[in-house]
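Lecture notes, unit on protein representations.

Consider one protein chain, 177 amino acids long.
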Amino acid sequence: MMRSILLLSLVAPLGATPPHPVAPTPPSAVAADREIWTSVIGFVSAAAEQVPDSSYSYRPAPTVRTFGQLIAHIAASQDVFCAQALGEKPNDSDIEKTTTGKAAAVAALKASTAYCQRAYAMTDAVAMKRTVKTFAGERPALWPLLYNTVHDNEHYGNIVTYMRMLGMLPPSSQPAQ
């Protein structure tokens, strides 16, 4: 009998519900933003690769950027926002004004995306504790990351329009492979 009680006292806790449930780990703000940014910049990068070099000079109206200028603008902006988040001096390149053609624009986009991957790897503790200078004043380092994600997404909307006007299917509308 004593062995049965001892055995039950050892086995029962294994399947029992703890008296105080363990709270789930709160989601990471940086990780959530990184997930969205990764998706958006993936679509932007795919579009930059898919649009032919001959269409990089396409502009739907005289008052807007060419497709190539739009890709270079995204690259330049990413450099600025991610430098802000990292507390580093932004690259002084003038890629938005000097980049011509697909090869240069795609290379600039790849470089800025690789640079931003460092920024999106920071922890929430760092992203909220570090204060950085932005065009909107002093903000936590998370702010330029969020702004970069929104900015890239906004311009992906422009890319979708350009591609549709060129008779192309944008990456986000293409069948999964």
